[in-house]
Amino acid sequence: NDYMYPTDGERNALGVGLAVPLGDYRYYRLDANHVSYQPLSDDLILKLTADLGLAKGYSGKELPFFKRYFGGGSGSVRGFGNKTLGPLYPNNKAKGGELSVLGSVNIISPAYFFDNSDNMRMSAFIDTGNIYEKTSSIKLGDLRMSAGVSFAYLSPIGAIGIYWSTPILKKSGDIIENFSFSLGTGF
């Protein structure tokens, strides 16, 4: 019902990609996304998101690096370093993976502490998910989870988001990023 600050409704998307055998790459990619908004009261909105992605090489070809999934940070599981979920190389750079599983629960409200909060929102959230190198390596015990608060402002140059988050399901060696901001993304 509103592009920048929806309060009711849902969006579902399904994406399919296939690299045909005419080039050097042979892979397929399937992406499913669900976002729903449900009013809880005049001021509170429940936002639920779920993202599932699967990509694999075929005919003996590996999935190209630039088509792998990466997770962690804004738009994924906040509280973890950008692109640090899932398998890492020894230098802590992301390998990416064939499978992405992400979800989020947000309670969104106006930014009450400002007089004119028409273009500002804040939320409390829980994010969960992970990136798996191979579809055969899925373990639910590897899921990460974080909880936090965020603030979004729709500025004249676009949306600006700020969040503070702390991991509540993490593993030794995870790269933590409690505070971050984003441009171009709100709620």
The number of distinct β-strands equals 10
Mean pLDDT figure: 91
Strand order of the largest sheet: 1-2-3-5-6-7-8-10
With helices defined by DSSP (H or I, 4 residues minimum), what is the helix count? 0
- Based on CA inertia axes, which overall geometry fits? globular
Any idea what the CATH architecture is?
A: Beta Barrel
Given as residue ranges, the uncertain stretches (5+ residues, pLDDT < 50) are none
Determine the structural class based on helices, strands and strand pairing.
Answer: mainly beta
Q: Which CATH first-tier class would you pick?
A: Mainly Beta
Helix content bin: under 10%
Most strands sheet: 8 strands, antiparallel
Gyration radius, in Å: 18 Å
What does this structure look like?
This protein is mainly beta and 187 residues long. It is built from no helices and 10 strands. An 8-stranded antiparallel beta sheet has the order 1-2-3-5-6-7-8-10, with no helix packed on it. A two-stranded antiparallel sheet has the order 4-9. A hairpin with an 8-residue loop joins strand 1 and strand 2 (27-39). It is globular. This is Bacterial surface antigen (D15) domain-containing protein. Residues 1-187 form the Bacterial surface antigen (D15) domain. It comes from marine metagenome.
